Amino acid sequence: MPSPSAQVPSSVVVVGAGLAGAQTAAALRTHGFEGHLTVLGAEGLPPYDRPPLSKELFKRTEPVWLADDLGIDLPALADDLRLADPAVRLRVDREHVVVRTASGDDVEADAVVLACGSAPVRPAGWDAAVTLHTAADADRLRAALVPGARLVVVGAGWIGAEIAGVAAGAGARVTVVEAGPVPLERQLGRRVGGLLTPWYDDAGVTLLTDIAVDQVLAGRQEGAPDGARVTLDDGRVLEADLVLAAVGARPASGWLAGSLPLESNGGLRVNRAGRFMGLHSPTDPAGHLHLDALRRVWAVGDVATREHPVFGPVPGGHWSAALHDPEPTVRALLGLDERAAEPEHVRARLGLAPVPAHAPYVFSQQLGHDLALFGAPSPFDEVVLRGAPPAPGEPGAGSASGGSAGGWAALYLERALDRHPRRTPDGHRVATVRAVLLVDSPREVGQVRKLMNRSVPLEIDLDRALDPGTKLKDAVL
Fold first, then answer.
1. Is the pLDDT of residue 224 over 60?
2. Structural domains of the chain, ranges and CATH numbers in brackets
3. What is the pTM of this model?
């Protein structure tokens, strides 16, 4: 039951009909919300899972509907479901929220949950490039990537690597252009990204690094009937039948500018419970919101930079956040847990159960390999390897093994420059783990997930952890 002091809303509008929005609607009804629920979507489709769009582009020609995958029947949950009437403006005051939709309607409610997701980045002037974010985008890619088609992928991040691999496997001639020195440098660091570089050649993909793209022009501008021309900053020109811009994504929050103060990346800073914190910079036109107004605004999924007890502020974009964060957010919104944002030591003193902590999680299938990343790597971490990547030509070097052969891991360790090094009684180094990347190690995924989904930092006996013959959990202190 809600706390007597809680102001339980009688109406809620959820902006976004993806995984985070669907999970929010389901959690509201599961926890007894009987008020009026409005859900606004943008694509005109029921909720579906986005990761298969790139990983399984040719294996799945229909979206993975959440109604089938997770049992979320959104039409049965929402009183007012508008799958093709996206939000375009938000007004918040001390009494209510009002969401203006593209059709011109004003939806008034006691609270809003912003689950509006992200949008792919397409640099100015790249109108001839396509992006991959929606089911319609995937349909267009499938139709264009016929055997022999020339595909240029700009960006060797998660999406770029995944599409490069499936396209090459379907017979397309693929070139990937990456501005950094190695694939996934921003996400995994230069050392680990360098270990992935041979995968491109193994998969029959041409990888160009340390080179930026100046322009992506439609082929017809050069007299060709279709296709595109990619101009590199060294003057080279790549002819393509299709160009995919895979240079990242940003929160789909442009419509909130001027209404709520946004972070520099467009995200919304929320506390551990998902309530908007209203952080303000002097140059932000949105200004300050009254505390009563802040209590009406919540955010989950890609758009939310959420406070984590171990990793601090974690930007959205992690599938695990969209899946898990709506649950504690809804409990806090409904007054079922008014202390959901409190640190665990405070909750323990109050006799409250711990709030489950979920480490940021990314899973990728690319170029014949499986990757699972738990935690939040930073450029300041020390990187050590557990096991060794197979050398070219060795078993497991060119494709995912499905077992332990060829599998390895990278551990990202906190550099504690302000503390004295610690040792175990055996003289082994004690290290704090900020992230774990598993490569071709499916049997270790469940174990590492449990270790990283903690509300306290993971500390290990490093000597034992680096021994592939020792289970990682047996190295935890």
1. no
2. 11-119+250-349 (3.50.50.60), 135-247 (3.50.50.60), 368-475 (3.30.390)
3. 0.91
